[in-house]
Design goal:
elongated; mainly beta; Porin
Length: about 300
Amino acid sequence: MKKLNISIIAVLLIMMSSYVNAQNIVPVNDNNQSSPFAIRMHVSPPFSLLSTRIKSDTYNDEKKDGLGYTMGADFVYYYFRNDKFRASVSLGFGLSNYRSSRQLSYTHSVNTTDIDGDDVLITETVDNMFEVLSLKYLDIPLKFGFEFTLSETLDAYLSVGATYGLNLKGKYKNEATITRTGYYAAYNALIFDVDVDGSPYFYPTNKRMTSDDVVALKKNISLEAALGLKYKLNSKLSFLVGVKYMHGLSDIVDESSSFIVKHDDAYHYSLNSLAVRGDKIQTRALGIEFGLQLKLW
């Protein structure tokens, strides 16, 4: 997927460069008679230090930001222009990847019933848990842009807008040392050190477990803003560099569980993601944005 995304961006940039080189060379000065339409390509790759955060209400203190990326293209329409100021609206698409990690230990107890219907208090002790969570979204942004002329070849720009993100994939890798006990108050019995594959009773002691699995996601509604400079290479093509911030508004995880341990229908056990434990998960990103803008017609 990553190689495909880079290839698509490279082909589009080559096409844009070829188109511009085919045009007659004219002065770079903008004027109100030029086309009000443009295409803008933008990318915030990992090497640009796009710091992404998957915000958690419960485990936010233990989180560490990760390096993600965002890339896309916008169709831009300038609805107001004069010698110094231009205003635009744009609609586009993009791909965003958010990454974050957490490392922690905790103990948690839940009253539930077992497979036979007996009441049981299950206590999970989770030691040295480390998890990396990676989320991918297909973004559809609607943005308003404002540009102010600083010189014949240099503009300052600001863009603000909202994005509707379609979930593509949520993936996590984690590992932890797990101890589980089950207390049956009706029998005054504590069950522990039971670790039999395929058994509905799973109460291991200091068992090291790992998982590499997916997490179900919902749509991601977010706000975004970018501030930077646009340098005019010629009458058609401009280079942009700026700072971009993305702020998720919605809770994006579409599953929930009280336990860190999960099992399939055959009672093979693995680990849940921390993200599914009844928490509110939102996205954040801050980094450097690069781009090219091509005037049409």
